[in-house]
């Protein structure tokens, strides 16, 4: 990769991690690492263009089918592709099939851009991570091989000890909070060859373990507000991304807005134009 290359456009493809959950803004929308990175790149390049097509809850097959072609059609300098974790965190998963669909998306995106970026996604330390670690490591090993095949950059977030710290994760225990996303944006910034603004791997201060009552209250709130709704969606075949079709982010307006499917139609609808990002 050309270090500190000039990128005048950026398209982000993926699921809730790239959409920005759970770096919440006051109006209820999300910002996230991709928006933060786009704003920093825009500050260096007048006329910078950015589109975030990521949608929460999407499986890798949906990302490949719904996002990769519109993203490739935009012909961006920089494209990020992150997906597959929603698949491997399900009770049953064919990891080889997930890798095949990820490869399909990469093969469509790589020729369309100056630089493709893949990631080894972060994981919150705890029993859930340990249960699914073998699947995640299989997926991430494939990401490394896929990157070598396409000359892509790999940002290793999974290997960063600090990003496993629960204090960088939201109450839902599935998504990074604002500080977590800020660190991912800095990791991306450095991976693109820019001078570091800080050490995104720096550990947090020693944690003070909450008391028994506080831990039980937190567990109860997590179960009520996040776990039970998630189980309900699984049982009814619904997804948190239903009805959503990718987003643009306007740094000028300070908000994200959805690109809706065609009226009365199926699918996501292509993103047919760019939104100018302002620093």
Automatic annotation (TrEMBL):
InterPro entries given in the database record: GDSL_Rv0518-like, SGNH_hydro, SGNH_hydro_sf
Any single Pfam family the record assigns to this protein: Lipase_GDSL_2
Protein name, per record: GDSL family lipase
Gene3D superfamilies: SGNH hydrolase (3.40.50.1110)
All residue ranges annotated as the SGNH hydrolase-type esterase domain in the record: 12-183
Species assigned in the record: Streptosporangium nondiastaticum
